[in-house]
User: Fold this.
Amino acid sequence: MEMCRQILQEGLQELNISADEHKVELLLAFIKLIEKWNKAYNLTAVRKPEEMARLHILDSMAVMPFIQGNRVADIGTGAGLPGIPLAIFLPDVEFTLVDSNSKKTRFVQQAILELKLKNVKVIHSRVEKLQSDTLFSTVIMRAFASLEDIMHLSRHLIDKEGILLAMKGQKPDQELVKIALPYSIIPVHVPGIEAERCLIQIEKVADNG
Assistant:
């Protein structure tokens, strides 16, 4: 895990994110949990801890500056990404992690318990069926569908002042053509990863109020 520690420390520094030893230890513990559960639960195709550090943890941390407000929903969280790494570094923000795969939500629940995260809860549900008493200031996802579909499925969860953040690879020009709402394309650099990354921020998504 020493190589992972170095990757994380250097990567966080490159992202201008200050990290005390405790937070780095939590990230390393999270990687160990993914690696352990991956054998039985097939959480991710990424097998090497060093690659998890770059492709999962630093990829998640790279979007931290764009989180708004104090209630965040991570839709299609899978193994808890980007929600758990973000929650470790944003302890005053409430995170709700949502996935329709019961094996993955069981893993995330276990990770929350073992990492002693007080600001995270997990819900086993399809996003379109999820009902929340309180709306979210940011809904984020590692884009599992087209932007149009993501907006349609999640808009009932977003506060009228809230935003939708879709983590994408290359700029999805064909998808953006279909978006009539105000949006921003934010280039994202993930330390140690050459592949193109961007964040699509869409505003005024809410269908309430």
In short: The chain has seven helices and seven strands. The radius of gyration is 16 Å.
